[in-house]
Amino acid sequence: MTMGKRPFIFLFFMQQLLMLQGAKILTLCLLGGSHYLLMDEVSRILHNNSHEVTMFRQLGEGLLPGYHWRPIPYKIVTYFLDESYLQEFDEFFKEYSKLFFNGKSSLNDYITFMGQLSKQCNATLNQTDILDSLKADKYDIAVIDALNPCTFLVVEKLGVPYIAFFPGTFANGEHIGLPTPLSYVPIFQSSLTDHMDFFERVKNIFMYFGSHFVERKVQAQFEDVIKKHFPYESRPFLSDLYLKAELWLYNTDFSLDFARPLLPHIQYIGGLLAKPTKPVSQELEEFISQSGESGFIVVTLGSMISSYPNYEILKEMNSGFAKLPQKVIWRYQTSQWPKGLKLASNVKIMDWVSQNDLLGHPNVRLLVTHGGWNSLMEAVYHGVPVVGIPLFGDQFDNLARMKAKKMGTIITPDQIKAERFANVIQQITEDKSYKTSAMHLSVIHRSRPFPPDQQLVRWVEHIIQTGGGAHLRPYSFKQPWYQQCLLDVILFISSCLIVTIYIIVKLFKFLIRIFCSSRKQKQH
User: Across the strands, what pairs with 369?
Assistant: First the structure.
């Protein structure tokens, strides 16, 4: 190496180091519940690694009842939804919850929910003063909650390059250019596994075409928002914004998810909320100790739903728990417990529980959950078997993965009767094969070369340092659809074959005529 090059290389690496130490990162969180918990964790991890982090957060929909708020070390920029809309959304969510607990969740409900997000998006993009201020701050990169299409529109409005963080499995894989072999990759909301028989593969194909129809319906919900807030000559398509992401990070892991093809710009960092255990409170420790060797069960049906609108299911679950030898710690708003229903003597209800710490307790025996991906990843991390009660969205698919990995079983809301519910729980807690499977998945998850928080930081810094993720995205994203499907090549080869066959047929006909003519002349 020549002496002249050494100062240049030194300065280059010093520049990169200084840039990474001082990177300005914007995180977007426009949903509550587990979405906020994840984006808060992402923001904390980046902040703790010496980056200047600002979260743009929407407040008001209150989807974390009972949550014990932690001090926030990074900067937050917030705005509140309109009071009249909040009343509308609250009524919508209550009706939505009733459908879930009656086992009536459907794709149409998902589209309706996206319609609510489009209304919120219109309000978000109306915050022109806040958006102008964020734009003036000139962030190096944004990390957005990719479930909500509005986050793509916000960063497009700000003109900031972005990393899309998806809070679950590869549910949208076919919509972001991810190879999706339908013979073993189940489509979102199919509830299939990667081991499909003939008719399940038929179902998966129909679900594939149906998913594109649903995606078009979802994107249509945001068309009016785009027309209102973007000038005609620069109106984006959501499908293009999905492909524009510098990187896609998924909150999943192949300990629980099914193996499938990925592209270089698709990375998985599942388990951000699963952590080493902290001691539980003295009150909980005393309650747990009363069960002796029987241990205890944790019951949480999601961060968003703290009390259940179906009295009959609540009564049957309570009666089922009363038949068990274990103690039960149940996240349920104490103020919402029905006055006429006596709580089982072995059950303790709490407004909020530290699920991760309870799952890491040596006496825990089971998690009863709605099947949220964060809950399942925490159960995998701590090696705890599961009984799943799917309610809506991705929970049916999530629990199908859990059951396929032999980590537990599923019972739907309409199947919950006290005797049956208790029998299902006893089956999972007494059959040691479920615990063995859960511990094996825990080994797979924990023995990855790098923990998820390190992967998050390294990938974000890689994108900043290299000036984007263009080197990771395949050229197919720039190709017309007919080139991607090789239709032009197929047409060319088919045309050549047809012309060749035509010439051969004509030549044979010509030769036959000559041969026949020659024979006739000889006969004469």
Answer: 300, 388
Residue type, 211: S
Integer CA distances (angstroms), 81 to 40, 56, 89, in order: 20, 14, 10
Which helix (H) or strand (E) covers residue 368, if one does? strand 364-369
Q: Is 393 in a helix, a strand, or coil?
A: coil
Closest by CA to 200, choosing from 213, 188, 183, 215, is: 183
Contact in structure between 426 and 402 (CB atoms under 8 Å):
no
Q: Tell the residue number behind the tokens 């075409």, with chain if given.
A: 209
pLDDT, residue 514, reads 85
* Polymer length of the chain: 524
**What are the tokens at 379?**
């159960």
With residue 503 as reference, give the H or E element that holds it. helix 487-523
Smallest Cα–Cα separation from 92: which of 68, 118, 66, 69?
118
Residue 522 vs residues 63, 515, 518: alpha-carbon distances, Å:
98, 11, 6
d(CA 353, CA 288): 14
Q: Of 299, 413, 390, 302, which is closest to residue 63 (Cα–Cα)?
A: 302
Radius of gyration from C-alpha coordinates of the chain: 28
How far apart are the C-alpha atoms of 24 and 207, rounded to whole Å?
Answer: 41
- CA 474 vs CA 141, 162, 240: distances in Å: 21, 17, 14
pLDDT per position as a tens digit, 210-241:
999 999 999 999 999 999 999 998 899 999 99
Q: Give CA 376 to chain center in angstroms.
A: 12
The residue behind tokens 């999530």 is 398
- Determine the Cα–Cα distance for residues 95 and 88; give it in Å rounded to an integer: 11
CB-based contact 408:402 (threshold 8 Å): yes
pTM value? Answer: 0.90
Distance in angstroms (rounded) separating the CA atoms of residues 406 and 400: 10
With a CB cutoff of 8 Å and minimum separation 6, the contacts of 98 are 309, 310
Name 331's bridge partners: 350
CA distance 253 to 377: 8
Sign of CA dihedral 76, 133, 34, 458: negative
Q: Which residues pair with 350 in a beta bridge?
A: 331
Q: What is the pLDDT of residues 67-101, one digit of tens each?
A: 778 899 999 999 888 888 888 888 887 777 777 77
* Residues 29, 56 contacting (CB under 8 angstroms): yes
Question: Could you tell me if 416 and 370 are in contact, meaning their C-beta atoms sit under 8 angstroms apart?
Answer: no
* pLDDT tens-place string over residues 469-514: 999 999 988 888 888 889 999 999 999 999 999 999 999 988 888 8
